[in-house]
Design goal:
- Helices cover 20% and strands 42% of the residues.
- It contains three helices and ten strands, in the order E-E-E-E-E-E-E-H-E-E-E-H-H.
- The strands form three sheets. Strands 7-4-9-8 form a four-stranded mixed sheet, sandwiched between helices.
- The longest helix is centred in the last third of the chain and has 15 residues.
- The protein starts with 5 loop residues before the first strand and ends in a 12-residue tail after the last helix.
């Protein structure tokens, strides 16, 4: 069976600053029809910014939908038409006040594929240099640095619950352990 659905019709129920909500009627692989409600999102980026001692920078911030403070890797949304590498450089500078000499693309993360189109692009960064943070005017966060191994322990114990952070920290840890991170370096022409 071919696992594909075809959009037959649809309507936009909501257009927002960050997301849109659409309701589509689709043709199913078996010939039937169904409704799909989709949150349309431009995507995002996140980064495991590593020091020479394999310490990673984490940010803690209040997340309104979760009614609490979450610990995450530096991250942000893609602006319309923005390339992920440009976005991750912007977010690293904004949230940590850092620039990196090396960036590594570690893949894509689909946080909620059942109802949201968002794709988060995962990066690691090394060769850090520091300046001032440039937070957005509505952004408030605390930055901390800890050994990557300790951050992974917090993922495994359930202290770090954010999905993109879990995936990125675990991938980065394994690539460092297996000495394969260098295979993912981005070379800019």
């Amino acid at each position: 069976m071919q696992l594909k659905e075809k959009r037959l019709s649809g309507e936009t129920l909501y257009e927002g600053k960050i997301i849109d909500l659409v309701k589509d009627t689709v043709l199913l692989p078996n010939g039937g029809q169904s409704i799909r409600e989709v949150v349309v999102h431009h995507g995002g980026v996140c980064v495991a910014a590593l020091t020479e001692k394999n310490e990673v920078f984490l940010v803690s911030q209040f997340r309104y939908p979760n009614s609490g403070v979450l610990t995450e890797v530096p991250a942000g949304k893609l602006e319309k038409g923005e390339k992920p590498l440009e976005a991750i450089k912007r977010e690293l500078k904004e949230e940590v006040g850092a620039e990196a000499s090396n960036y590594y693309f570690l893949g894509e993360f689909n946080p909620t594929p059942a109802y949201c189109s968002e794709i988060i692009y995962l990066y690691a960064a090394t060769g850090l240099s520091f300046g001032d943070q440039k937070l957005d005017e509505d952004e408030f966060l605390n930055v901390e640095k800890m050994p990557l191994e300790d951050a992974v322990k917090k993922v495994l114990s359930g202290e770090i619950t954010d999905g993109k952070t879990q995936a990125l920290l675990l991938k980065t840890f394994m690539h460092l352990k297996e000495e394969t991170l260098h295979q993912f370096i981005i070379t800019e022409d």
